[in-house]
Amino acid sequence: MKPILLFDFDSTITNVEALDLLGEQLAANGRLTAHDVAQIKHITDQGMAGEIGFGQSLEKRLDILKLQVVDLQDLIATLHHRVSESIDRNKTWFLSHSDRIWIVSSGFKEFIAPVVHRLGIEPDRILANEFVWDSRGIGHVAKASPLAHDQGKPKVVAAANFTQPVWIIGDGYTDYEIKLHGAADKFLAFTENVRRPGVADVADHVLLNLEELIELDRNA
């Protein structure tokens, strides 16, 4: 039985962390400082390496960003051009296997869905956070979402009740946690964009690019 292929989004489907990119864009517009951008990236790295809880990492970054609805349009436009090279050159493979490809991310569906649509991945196959907007028009994570909290990914994957084997493909410790907590059968560290030593060390396979996953999947 062929596995369900669960892809992380940031630094896997794309070659950038979306909230880091957003910070750079807001700095270019004068709404953030260079110090703010550096702080956001540092917090991202701490969360992805498992040095702080992901819920804490997400909340800290959103507090700095003070995201507005209008900011999403520019972010999405840029993310379309930041799809990882090996994924971009294998779009036809995604389209032909879209019936068993899902996205699981602690990022936000509002910017993930438009980017993965051209890979044949529909919104009902995206497990991700969603924004809520306060009276000032500032975006916050919906607190009810398990993905807004530590170990959220294992919980939402387990709740999906997949009947096939599950492989998780990602670059961060939160992706490995899906296997660690029994919701996936294999963790494949995707290192085309970033290699995190503590993450690669616990992977069943370390992937340099998508072609290596395609070969593993072909032989599964």
Structural account:
- With 220 residues, this protein is an alpha/beta fold.
- The protein has one domain: 3-Layer(aba) Sandwich (Rossmann fold), CATH 3.40.50.1000.
- It is built from 12 helices and 8 strands.
- The strands form 2 sheets. It has a 6-stranded parallel sheet with strand order 3-2-1-6-7-8, with helices on both faces.
- The longest helix is centred in the first third of the chain and has 15 residues, at 34-48.
- It starts with a strand and ends with a helix.
- The mean pLDDT is 94.
Give the key terms.
12 helices, 16% strand, six-stranded parallel sheet, Rossmann fold, 220 residues
Helix and strand layout, with pairings?
Layout: E1 4-7, H1 9-13, H2 18-28, H3 34-48, H4 54-65, H5 69-79, H6 85-88, H7 91-96, E2 101-108, H8 109-116, E3 126-129, E4 131-133, E5 139-141, H9 152-159, E6 166-170, H10 173-180, E7 186-190, H11 197-200, E8 205-207, H12 210-218
Parallel strand pairs: 1-2, 1-6, 2-3, 6-7, 7-8
Antiparallel strand pairs: 4-5
Helix pairs in contact: 2-3, 2-5, 3-4, 5-8, 9-10
